[in-house]
Amino acid sequence: MKKLMLFVFLFVFSTAIFAQTADDITGIWWNDIKSSKIKIEKKDGKYIGTIVYIIPEKYVNGAPEKDDRNPDVNLRSRSRLNLQILSGLVYNATEKEWASGSIYDPKNGKTYDCYVWLEGKDTLQLKGFVAGIRMLGRKSAWTRTTL
């Protein structure tokens, strides 16, 4: 009986260790090509992502690149640094993913529906898609880092 109780205790404890929580997504992440770092945080009950670092090699005339592909002409002169590119993500515990969000791609000025999930603690998989069809999209892997 003691062995059974010990097993149950260890099982419950070990599942708690490996359980994923909504806030596991928060932190600083390298994008897939390691050209910028994105800070993901919770704001107003949803998760957002903001570019907080751009490697100096991507600077133009000593300044971070501009959002020059934005469809809104008035926003094309803003810096990509401190640009919010992820918004509206909500954690779905059943699916173990953050969904119902959008991702803005400053390379082409387009915004896509997206969802994300963790693979381990340090790899964030993102998938941007169009027309509400998850199969029509592109996947990207971000890596946890520090600022």
Condensed summary:
The chain is mostly beta strands and 147 residues long. It is built from 1 helix and 8 strands. An 8-stranded antiparallel β-barrel has the order 1-2-3-4-5-6-7-8.
Classified by CATH, the class is Mainly Beta
Order of helices and strands: HEEEEEEEE
How many extended strands?
A: 8
- Apparent shape: globular
Number of helical stretches of at least 4 residues = 1
Spatial order of the strands forming the largest sheet: 1-2-3-4-5-6-7-8
Helix-strand makeup class: mainly beta
Query: Number of folding domains?
Result: 1
Unreliable spans are 4-18
Mean residue pLDDT: 90
Mind summarizing the main beta sheet? 8 strands, antiparallel, barrel
**CATH topology-level name:** Lipocalin
Task: Kindly estimate the percentage of residues that lie in beta strands according to DSSP.
Answer: over 45%
